[in-house]
Amino acid sequence: MKPQTLIFTLFGDYINNKGGTVSVRSLIKMMKPFGLSEQATRAAVSRLKQKGLLENVNSKGSYKLSEEGLVKLTSGVRRVYFKTKHPWDKKWRIIVYNIPESKRELRDKIRKELRWLGFGMLAQSTWISPNPIEDYVNNMLNESWKDVRDSVHFFISTYLGDPKALVNLCSDIKGIENAYKTFIEKWKNVKDEMSEEESFVMKIRLVHEYRKFLHIDPDLPADLLP
């Protein structure tokens, strides 16, 4: 398990429900059952802080999610725990960008965040989603994408062709289906009786693995499912 993504899972599934603040000492204890050392935990916290996803709360080594981190977490929590299938409004959310090579690192970050939000890549630098996630996009434009705000363009439009064919151009639907089947097969026989620590570790491992689907599943409305 990657330390940085595990910390994010812990915030989403546990820490944010307990006030949203955690000391490095407590985080080290939580990470230990997953085989991660104190050094690995401290390094992961430092990198998340450098990325702007964590911020200091006080001088005693406590941290909370930054505004940018909270936006990302909220989107993930919504898709993991509160999936609701609303009737599709037949509209597509489209993002087109023209970010210079000098800002390639930020451009790569935006691509990852678009996948996290459920966008699929239709063409180079053109991403689409059928979901009403304008608020999340606007938050990103005003937070983590603000340095290239003038190079990122957001549209809402309709499509005159077959919408399911459009989905297949952007996502490997069959591959996603097979990945879900593999996940279910792996976790369907979890034992009923566990200690408190075993239960904690098992739940976090399950959620952590499920979160990987947020990077590949476009979270399609029912009208666009196969």
UniProtKB/TrEMBL annotation:
Domain Transcriptional repressor PaaX-like N-terminal residues, every copy: 3-69
Q: Which Pfam family is one of those matched by this entry?
A: PaaX_M
Q: Where is the Transcriptional repressor PaaX-like C-terminal domain?
A: 174-226
Among InterPro entries, the record links this protein to: PaaX-like_central (IPR048846), PaaX-like_N (IPR012906), PaaX_C (IPR013225), PaaX_trns_reg (IPR011965), WH-like_DNA-bd_sf (IPR036388)
**Domain of life according to the entry:** Archaea
Where's the Transcriptional repressor PaaX-like central Cas2-like domain?
Answer: 86-161
Protein name stated in the entry: PaaX family transcriptional regulator
Name the source organism: Candidatus Acidianus copahuensis
